[in-house]
Design brief:
This protein is an all-alpha fold. The protein has helices spanning 3-11, 16-43, 48-55, 59-66. It is elongated.
Length: 69
């Protein structure tokens, strides 16, 4: 089982402590994955507007979050 799959399963646990910890870990994982994909898109010549459109956020938001990486 992959880490993400395991975390997703634990996020649905009946024990809120287990579920909340899993949600927090999933949030960190998603942030890491987003950063990897944004860097990849920028290396391939994507504009901030194109990246923002795919993420469903504004150009300014994605640039502010990832512009200095």
């Amino acid at each position: 089982m992959t880490e993400a799959t395991d975390l997703a399963e634990r996020a649905g646990d009946r024990d809120p402590r287990v579920g909340l910890r899993a949600v927090s870990a999933l949030r960190r994982l998603v942030e890491q994955l987003e950063a990897v994909q944004v860097r990849s898109a920028r290396r391939q010549g994507w504009s901030w507007q194109e990246i923002a459109a795919e993420l469903g956020v504004s150009r300014q938001a994605v640039h502010k979050k990832h512009g200095r990486q």
